[in-house]
UniProtKB/TrEMBL annotation:
A Pfam family hit: CopB
Protein name, as recorded: Copper resistance protein B
Entry-linked InterPro entries: Cu-R_B_prcur (IPR007939)
Keyword Signal appears in the UniProt entry: yes
Organism (species): Reyranella aquatilis
Record key words, sorted: Signal
Signal sequence residues: 1-23
C-alpha cells in the first residue's frame, strides 16, 4: 500500500511540473493585454537658449532667444523669451507664457499671453499658436496675437539642422513678424514688420553646449523701416555672429 501511495504521489508531482508556465500564470493572473494602458504622467523640465550671441557689423548688438517648459508628455507650461540689446537699449523684448497641449506625435497647440517688455512702452497680448516638427524634421511655429487695443499680430518661424557630422551642424533659421496696425510708440508698422534670417554653424562639444559662428540679416519693412530711419538707424543690416547654444 505504501508503495502504491508513493507511486501516485510521484505521478502527481511530475504532472504538475510538466504543466506549461504560461498556463499556470494564466490561471492566477490576467493576460498582459487585459491590463489598462497607462500614460506616462511623469513631470519633466527642459530649458534651452537657442541663441546667446553677439552680432557685429555697421552696429553691434547682443541677441538672446530661449524657452523652457515643465510638465508631462501631454500637458506643459511653456515660457519663451527673446530680445536684443543695442546701444544700451533693450529692443524686441518679447516674453511669452503658454499652456501647451500635445495634439500629435510631433506638434503642440499653445494658448497663453505675451508681454513686450523692453526699453519701449510695454504692450500685452493674448496668444494662440502651434509648434513642432514638420515632415523631414523642419522645426516650425506659427503664433497669432491680439491686444486689448485691437492690434493683431502674427509670428512665423522655422529652422532646420543639417548634420555634417554628429557634432558639426549647420542651421538655417528665419523669423517673420506681421502686424495689422501701426504702433508708433513701439516703432512698429503694419504689414510685414521684421524679417530675421540666420545661418549658423555650431560644434556640439557636448549635446548641452555648442559654440557657433554665422551670419544674419535683419530687415525692417514698411513703416517699421521708416521709424528706424527717423531714429538714425539702418533698416537692413547684415552681421557676423558668434555665440553659444546651451540646454539643460
Amino acid at each position: 500500500m505504501k508503495t502504491h501511495a508513493l507511486a501516485l504521489g510521484t505521478m502527481l508531482a511530475v504532472a504538475g511540473l510538466s504543466t506549461p508556465a504560461g498556463a499556470q500564470a494564466s490561471a492566477t493572473q490576467p493576460a498582459a493585454h487585459d491590463k489598462p494602458h497607462l500614460l506616462d504622467q511623469s513631470v519633466y523640465f527642459h530649458g534651452i537658449f537657442n541663441q546667446l550671441e553677439g552680432r557685429f557689423g555697421e552696429t553691434s548688438s547682443f541677441r538672446w532667444s530661449g524657452e523652457s517648459w515643465v510638465g508631462t508628455d501631454e500637458n506643459k507650461i511653456w515660457l519663451r523669451t527673446e530680445g536684443r540689446v543695442e546701444g544700451g537699449q533693450v529692443d524686441d523684448g518679447i516674453q511669452e507664457l503658454f499652456y501647451a497641449r500635445s495634439i500629435s506625435t510631433y506638434f503642440n497647440a499653445l494658448v497663453g499671453a505675451r508681454y513686450d517688455l523692453d526699453s519701449q512702452p510695454g504692450r500685452g497680448w493674448g496668444a494662440i499658436g502651434i509648434e513642432g516638427l514638420a515632415p523631414q524634421f523642419f522645426r516650425v511655429g506659427v503664433t497669432g496675437y491680439v491686444s486689448g487695443d485691437g492690434h493683431l499680430g502674427a509670428k512665423l518661424e522655422g529652422s532646420y539642422d543639417f548634420l555634417f557630422t554628429q557634432r558639426l551642424i549647420l542651421q538655417p533659421q528665419f523669423e517673420m513678424n506681421f502686424y495689422t496696425k501701426d504702433d508708433p510708440t513701439r516703432g512698429i508698422g503694419a504689414g510685414l514688420s521684421e524679417l530675421d534670417v540666420g545661418l549658423r554653424l555650431r560644434y556640439e562639444i557636448t549635446r548641452q553646449f555648442a559654440p557657433y559662428i554665422g551670419v544674419t540679416y535683419l530687415g525692417k519693412f514698411g513703416n517699421t523701416a521708416n521709424y528706424v530711419l527717423q531714429s538714425g538707424g539702418n533698416p537692413n543690416e547684415v552681421r557676423f555672429v558668434t555665440g553659444v547654444r546651451a540646454w539643460f
